[in-house]
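Hi support team,

I submitted a single chain yesterday and got back a structure, but I'm not sure I'm reading the token output correctly. Could someone confirm the output below corresponds to the sequence I sent? I've pasted both exactly as they appear in my results page.

Thanks,
R.
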Amino acid sequence: MRIGVTGGIGSGKSFICKIIEKIGYPVYYSDEESKKIVDFNKEIKEQLTTLFGAEVYQDNKLNRIFLTQKLFDSTKIRDKVNAIIHPAVRAQFDVWTKQQSTKLVFNESAILFETGSYTQFDKIILVTAPIGLRIERTMKRSNLTKEDVGRRMSAQWLDDHKISLSDYIIVNDGQPLLNQLEKILASLEVE
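Hi R., thanks for writing in. Yes, this is the structure output for that exact sequence:
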């Protein structure tokens, strides 16, 4: 069974996935893998260079600062970049999934809903947290300003919209998480 784990920036989805891994389930980290793919996939490099010019790569590596500025300036640009990168990430996840031997496999991705890829999963776990806490976590973790975090948050769907499309919700508001997660995993194991 393929389980998507998602949540807005600073919600704690990666933290939840690290716990899932420690429990013994395999987790594919889409955001981390996409960072590798954009540096090594020739087709993606060509498409991004066509879209943005040679400046999008420096020393044969993605110029992340340059691309990030472009992504958060325009929804159209963000959609074009997602259409270039995310099919390759999904294809790699499909290959990875076939290599796993457990009943449940998990895919961590910040933008499962925004890209439409949530439809390719059997179940979705949404990790939520209060906005103030998400901003604080992200500022601390990524050394971003409050304005930068706000821009990134505005590029993602609101939790209210995601909740209606999710099978399970984990509230990561500083209270213990393990009990919530164990109930979800027990439910998934019997499906």
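A quick pointer for reading it: The chain has a mean pLDDT of 94. Let us know if anything else looks off.

Best,
Support desk
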